[in-house]
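**Archive record**
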Amino acid sequence: MPVELEQVHEGMEVLSADGALVGTVQKVYPQPGLDAGGLEARRPAAYIKVRRVGAGYLYVPLDGLREVHQGRVVLSVPLGEIDNTNWVFRPLAVPPE
C-alpha cells in the first residue's frame, strides 16, 4: 500500500529498508495541487526533508517511502544504497531555506 504524505510528520524517525536509523523528518513538502480557480498551485512536489544521523540532509520523494510503521517512516532502499540515490541533492521543486 503506497504511503500517503499525510501519514508523515516532522520529528518522525526515518529507517532504511534494512532497519537502520537514517535520521528524522525535518520538513514535509506537499504535492502540487489545484488552487481555488482550478489552476495548478505553485507548490513543491511531494518530498520529505530528512536530517541524517551525523550530518547532512536527504530529500526523499514520496515514491522513495516504503511504509509508515509504528510511527516511523521506512525508506525503500537499504542504508548502504542511500548515497547512490539522488536524494542527497535538493530538488529544484524544493525551495531553499
About this structure: The beta strands are 13-15, 21-29, 47-52, 57-61, 65-69, 72-75. The radius of gyration is 14 Å. Residues 25 and 68 are 12 Å apart (CA to CA). Residues 34-38 have pLDDT under 50 and may be disordered.
